[in-house]
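step=encode ok
step=design start
structure_in=
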């Protein structure tokens, strides 16, 4: 069975890469490519809507797809946990699926996961992200996702130390993590997570060199996952095994372990 795909923003940088991957992927057919001038009702008849538009337009795309009962794959930046929380009840009521992917690069996802693993061991953590000067939003969706993963990993350790956070030059705080955004020519995408403690520092760096090559494997994974998804799913890490457990996964594992031993206790999932 062929999955009919509508791509919103399909003529942009990310949308063009997604279109090329979907066109070449068995079982998928791109039936419509929408631009900022298109009527969103043109998505009707599709099995999957891929949103690669802009931060300002994305909310309308998402709401339209949900209203039409169509599954979603969202690659547009600007979707924080707080913003996604507003969409969850709409998706649940519609009985559809919405997959939000801050970054399609496997290397970026692994880098963010490594930062989350290290986060409880360092009191000071800051993120420096750089993108080309044509990227209009900041901080990037990847930086927001990384900061949220760091905060979740520090649920017991508490917020990171960020002195003088009231000063604008200290960056924008996301989940207590200062994020510094660079927008300049000559760069595609780069993220540094700098973790510091007494007498030492650890820096985790990811560079995107060729978006078409870097994103294609993740796009293929996300397309297949979004086609059959139910409910809201966030992050490519939800579909690949990178050997790192999120706080929610640790809680689920704790419940399963207790069930095996017959000692089930109340566990609140994060």
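sequence_out=
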């Amino acid at each position: 069975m062929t999955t009919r795909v509508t791509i919103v923003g399909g003529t942009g940088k990310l949308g063009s890469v997604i279109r090329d991957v979907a066109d070449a992927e068995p079982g998928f057919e791109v039936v419509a490519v929408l631009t900022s001038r298109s009527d969103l009702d043109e998505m009707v008849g599709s099995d999957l809507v891929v949103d690669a538009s802009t931060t300002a337009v994305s909310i309308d795309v998402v709401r339209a797809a949900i209203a039409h009962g169509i599954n979603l794959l969202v690659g547009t930046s600007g979707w924080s946990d707080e913003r996604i929380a507003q969409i969850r009840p709409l998706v649940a009521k519609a009985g559809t699926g919405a997959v939000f992917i801050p970054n399609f690069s496997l290397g970026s996802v692994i880098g963010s996961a490594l930062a989350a693993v290290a986060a409880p061991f360092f009191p000071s953590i800051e993120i420096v992200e750089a993108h080309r000067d044509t990227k209009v939003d900041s901080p990037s969706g990847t930086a927001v996702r990384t900061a949220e993963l760091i905060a979740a990993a520090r649920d017991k350790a508490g917020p990171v130390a960020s002195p003088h956070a009231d000063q604008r030059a200290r960056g924008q705080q996301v989940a207590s993590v200062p994020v510094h955004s660079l927008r300049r020519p000559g760069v595609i995408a780069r993220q540094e997570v700098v973790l510091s403690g007494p007498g030492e520092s650890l820096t985790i760096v990811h560079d995107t060199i060729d978006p078409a090559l870097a994103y294609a494997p993740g796009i293929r994974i996300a397309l297949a996952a979004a086609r059959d998804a139910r409910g809201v799913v966030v992050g490519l890490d939800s579909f690949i095994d990178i050997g790192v457990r999120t706080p929610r996964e640790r809680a689920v594992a704790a419940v399963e372990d207790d069930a095996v031993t017959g000692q089930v206790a109340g566990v609140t999932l994060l």
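step=design ok
step=annotate ok -> The chain has three domains: 3-104+212-238, 106-208, 243-270.
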